[in-house]
Amino acid sequence: MRGSDAAARPALVIGGGVAGLSAAVRLSAAGRAVTLLEMARHLGGRCRSFDDAKLGARIDNGNHLMMTANQEILDYLDMVGARDEMKIAPLATFPFIDLAHDRRWIVRIRGKGAWWALDPRNRVPGTGLGDVLDLVRMARAPDHQPIGDLLRRRGQFWRRFWEPLAVGALNVPAVEGDAGLLRAVIERTFLAGEAACRPMTATRGLSETFVDPAVRFLTASGARLRLGAQVKALRFADGSVAEAVLDDGAVLPLAGADVVLAMPPTRAMALAPGLTAPAEGYPIVNVHFRLDQPAPTLPDGAFLMGLVGSQSQWIFVREEIVSHTISAAAEEAKQNEDALVAQLWRETCQALRLGPAARYAAVRVIREKRATFLETPPETRKRPGPQTAWRNLFLAGDWTATGLPATIEGAVLSGRRAAAAAMGRGG
Ligand SMILES: Cc1cc2nc3c(=O)[nH]c(=O)nc-3n(C[C@H](O)[C@H](O)[C@H](O)COP(=O)(O)OP(=O)(O)OC[C@H]3O[C@@H](n4cnc5c(N)ncnc54)[C@H](O)[C@@H]3O)c2cc1C
Fold first, then answer.
1. Structural domain tally of the chain?
2. Residue 268 domain-assigned?
3. Are residues 369 and 384 in the same domain?
4. What is the pLDDT of residues 172-189, one digit of tens each?
5. Model confidence over 270-294: pLDDT tens digits?
6. SS3 237
């Protein structure tokens, strides 16, 4: 690949998760000749759908909750013509149950800003006006402070709001999470009001929403997509990446090209010597039940329910599939499957008020051992920006310094920033 004019330089994207697709779409839209290499036989990385023979249904590798605050996602979907694939809940309504006390409530976010939090009807039961001070404290949280050092770790506001929110948003035990990341979440959502807080989910599946439309866009723009192509090494010369070596021994010349590494941090560190990144991963476990009847509907057309005093934190409901998410699942990643399934079925029956005769037709447990990087202060400090020590090498991925937790929103943003950095560099 040769050439020095920014618009004419070809671009190689390595890694076909959301971050890589986002970078490829932006570069392609800017007129670059894009090649995307993905080591797996499918695109999407940690954000994909597949046909599950055991369940007899198409499911996502993990339940993915997004919010209308996720403007990067919405812009990406607009670019690839897929906004219609996103299901947006009609209202910012979050039903909850505390299984330990069999207590139900609904958080309804209404209007602009955070005024909803002052109305007792919207508040978490067992909490008072004084708890709103914790919201103020969190809104001012500095980066890289553990959440446990910032908030009062007692009472129902902690147990029924902060703890599930932090675990769900950061995928770490709540006290250890980086408060700066949680601040970024609540600033964009709960403190912004209803318009930002409607839950979104991929209607047909993550692949149909994030991957297939991007493939159509890239193919129509002349991009080359190669699956089953693993980059084993990069070779450097004169402060730039000069070549990529593939697992089949092929060597891609890269002088004059821009290269975006959009792979998990440990793999990026193996290819780019001297790169520092958050290397530790943390698990999420999903348990999907297929009921022998459609699942009960939730209030206000909601498709998810929060659980407290339980092993699971969220239940997602889609027709007859009921899916649990357990974040920060260090224990569950190792737990005996029968015991885990039995516990989660009990939680399903209690939360959805299924009668004693209720049965499930099939169940699937998916353990993602490195679902996200470990979002604690020591690790988040290591997040690099899109630039590297090499002129033509850029980084994308949910683990880069987006200021956001490791989410699809962050991955899309990271891809856009890597593409912008590549387009912004001189020849
Ligand atoms: C179970 C689970 C639940 C989640 N829940 C949510 C949620 O509710 N909301 C939310 O927003 N986010 C959620 N996430 C996070 C979200 O899925 C990720 O943030 C996002 O998918 C990361 O995308 P990425 O492109 O940065 O990385 P990845 O998806 O990991 O993509 C990296 C790609 O690089 C490829 N690759 C690696 N090495 C090479 C190589 N040498 N050569 C070529 N290719 C290579 C990999 O095969 C992979 O396809 C969840 C994740 C999981 C696993």
1. 3
2. yes
3. no
4. 999 999 999 999 999 999
5. 999 999 999 999 999 999 999 998 9
6. strand
